[in-house]
Structure formats: C-alpha cells, structure tokens
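Morning. Coffee machine broken again, so started the prediction first thing and wrote up yesterday's gels while waiting. Chain of 278 residues, entered below exactly as on the submission form.
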Amino acid sequence: MRNAIRERLLAVVPELKDVYEPHAAEASSPKPYAVILQGEDSDESPWSGFRRIVEVWPYVSRSTFEKVDSLENKIISALDKQMLTAETGEVFSCIYLGSSGQDVVDEEWDAITRGMQFAVMALQPVGTNGQITSDPWVPALASWTTNVMGQDWAVYNGFWPLGFTRPSVMWRVTGIDVMPLGLASYRITKRFTVHVTGNEQHPEHAGVAALIERLGSEIKIPFDSKDRRYLMITDPKANIGADALQEGQITVTLSRRVSRPQADVPLIRSVNYKSSIR
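Came back before lunch.
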C-alpha cells in the first residue's frame, strides 16, 4: 500500500525528487520530497471495511510556505478519491482528511513542511466474497438505479467491495419491518441508506441530487414488471455533506404488499347428519 502511494506521487507530481519512509530521508536529501508515515488500522464498519490513516509530509527548502501550499494541492489531486493498486493486487481508495497540524520549520534540515492526513479505505474484504444477492429486492434496485444514473455508474449492494469503482451507488439495508394487513397479506418495509461516490466527470453532489430528485418524483420502483408488482417509495431524504463511504447521503423507505401462502387442505368428501328432533 505504501509503495503504491509512493509510485502514484512520483508519477503525478514531477516536482518531487523522491518519496521516502521516515527512516530513509536525510538532511542532505534533494528537495522537494515527501515522507509517508503509516498510522493505525481500524475496522470502521461492516460495509466500508478497513481504514488506515496515512500521513504525507512534503518537504521543501526553507523559503515560503506558498511552495508547500502548491505541492500540497498537487499531492491532494494525485491521491484524493483515487483508486490505487497494492503489490498484492488489492485496490484501495485514498480520502483526504485535512492537515495533521501546524506548519513546521525544520531548522536542522533547512526545510519547511506540513502534515497531510489521508484515510485509506477498503484495504481488505469484509467477511464475504461477493455482493449480497439473496435479497430479491436487490436486482430491482440495481436495475432502477442504472436506468436513473446511466451505465457509467456502478451499483453495489450491502458493502463496498475491494476495487470498487467511481462513480458508484451502494444500497444498504438499515432496518426491516413486517406489518400484518389481515389474514390474506402483510406489508414488508425496508429502510435503506444510499451511498453515492463520484469522480471528476460525475461529481458526487450531482449524483446525489439526481437520485434524490428521482426518488421524490416517482411513487414506486418496478419489482416484478411481469406480475405488476412494485416497491413503494416513501420519505426520501438527502444530506449532501455526509461522508459517502461510511455514512451515506440518502435515506429512503421502500415497501411492498405480500400475499400470505395458502395452505392446502383436503376436500370434504361427505357430511353425515343425524337430526335429534323426534
């Protein structure tokens, strides 16, 4: 993972003379260069998997911090929301979190620097080898989402897989209710959180706006067109500022009516009746 970040920086930020691990950089190392520090791992959630904090410190000759600002912007463009491939073949995404502290003047090395924090997401599988497909609602939601967003958008179900692509939409069930409607039927209600990730061609906020507007304008989603069955849409809400990978920007409730299975009983062959009136 660290080597993939190094190779990405060297390929996209030509100003960098090199990218070092903390123990490899020296006072005599040609500037500008960057140092990568790896932080602790954490299991963020069942749907986003692993999270690791990585810090990148760009070092420039001691002059003005405007040079650090310029290098910082180029490093953000090189890493933020980009898909990188580790030596093991695993694909991960870097998310820029902001500065890790104040500007630093290193008088001993005659350099100035500033720490930058990135969250490295989806470093490993999260307990399953494929998308959730056992839920019969999944293909209906995937088909509807593709019709709304277009073929450029990938659709995932339940969690972010290794190597997920952008732009993409991920549907995640957060609750299920069952309500009896009588002896013949009942209603299933599922609450969903929808995660929307974008890229330069398809911005995140535009994807959220398109999806929430469609959820608000339509009454139902086709579930089984042949049998004319649908998922009813209620209470769609959006928070554009929410984290796309961990929180999700859209919540919506879907429901459908289901007929109870009818038990087979033997037919009455005959009825014997004996009157008690004399």
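The chain has four helices and 14 strands. Going to sketch it on the whiteboard this afternoon.
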